[in-house]
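Let us work through a complete example step by step.
Step 1: write down the sequence.
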Amino acid sequence: MRGAVRKGFWRSPWRSATMLAAPVALALAASAACAAESNDYPTEARAEYVFGCMAANGQDQLAMHKCACSIDVIASILPYDRYVDAETVLSMRQGIGQPANSFRGVGVYNDMVADLRRAQAEAEIRCFE
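Step 2: predict the structure and record it as tokens.
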């Protein structure tokens, strides 16, 4: 019988599981998409930050926890591309001569660094106090 529904199909445990699995799968996919958008920092960049932070704040588990918290806060405030830009400006400012001077006193570069400094200050308040 074409088009006929088997008796008991709608009461089947497989049918119930299938009906529940679809919304759960959609919710997980949406959650993963949101997490991917808010977590645009590569693992390597996070690890590098934590290692540098621990070098300055101690080589113990408490420092590791605080440093990991810190980069998480920074990542929640500042997108990764803006973080890289600000870190590049800071790195270039450490040099000497004309190339380094071209990164000092320029409004756009100062704004980039100021955004990073604000994110770092927020991270310090949330994670180190």
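Step 3: interpret the result. Residues 14-36 have pLDDT under 50 and may be disordered.
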